[in-house]
Design a protein that fits this description.
four-stranded mixed β-sheet, alpha+beta, 8 helices
């Protein structure tokens, strides 16, 4: 039995979306953030030492209980254990290198920059300091968005013509995460078209309805910051 512990407005939306796209059976636990600090509740630390989302718990037929954190690891586990490899790309495929690169691009490069900006915004009350180092990091994020926009002007999904786990990993960082660290996507036509395309998928709609029913997809060029106590 696969159980998915999802924290509202978090990277764990990837895992819910993946399960819906694969059409697999799973039990979903939705957890709310602390309304003042925006932090995860204590149950996440009880499940997995870092205390962050997502966490999946897989109780096998032999009684063995497997607990996994890190969204990328959860995605790969579910694809290969429950999804028969669907939404991954096989090594012999022509687009395997594209898939592999973009799958790791999000949490390896793009999302760390988003998280850094979020922490700075929280620490500065929404008014980041005029720092050359911070400006360098922000410019790096713009370079990443330019890369993404160029790629999505060439193909409908990151690995090519079809949705893959590379997209499952990336969409959160281009949409929901902007509620913590807003950035203007107006210059990025192809990213915006991509977000609209994804938001029309039935699997994505089901995932939003189950995991984040009170938060509409953040697919507009400009979005408002989430209103938690620490983020007001």
């Amino acid at each position: 039995m696969l159980e998915v512990h999802h924290l509202e407005r978090s990277q764990s939306e990837r895992v819910v979306w993946l399960c819906e796209e694969l059409g697999i059976e799973y039990k979903l636990h939705v957890h709310q953030r602390n309304p003042e600090t925006a932090l995860a509740p204590p149950i996440f630390k009880e499940l997995h030492a870092p205390g962050s989302a997502p966490v999946i718990v897989d109780t096998r037929a032999d009684g063995k209980r497997i607990v996994i954190g890190e969204s990328g690891a959860c995605v790969e586990y579910i694809i290969h254990v429950y999804g028969n490899g669907r939404l991954a790309v096989k090594p012999e495929a022509d687009n395997y290198a594209d898939y592999l690169s973009w799958f790791h691009f999000c949490n390896g490069s793009y999302q760390p920059g988003n998280s850094r900006n979020m922490v700075v915004n929280m620490a500065s009350g929404g008014k980041p300091p005029d720092s050359p180092i911070l400006q360098m990091f922000q410019a790096r994020q713009e370079t990443f968005r330019q890369m993404l926009d160029q790629r999505l002007g060439e193909v409908p999904y990151l690995a090519g013509d079809e949705l893959t786990a590379a997209d499952i990993m990336m969409v959160y960082s281009l949409s929901t995460n902007r509620g913590y660290s807003p950035n203007d996507l107006t210059p990025y036509k192809h990213i915006l078209e991509y977000l609209q395309r994804v938001s029309q998928r039935e699997g994505y709609k089901r995932a939003r309805a189950k995991g984040d029913p009170e938060t509409p997809p953040l697919t507009a060029p400009v979005v408002e910051r989430f209103k938690f106590g620490a983020l007001k």
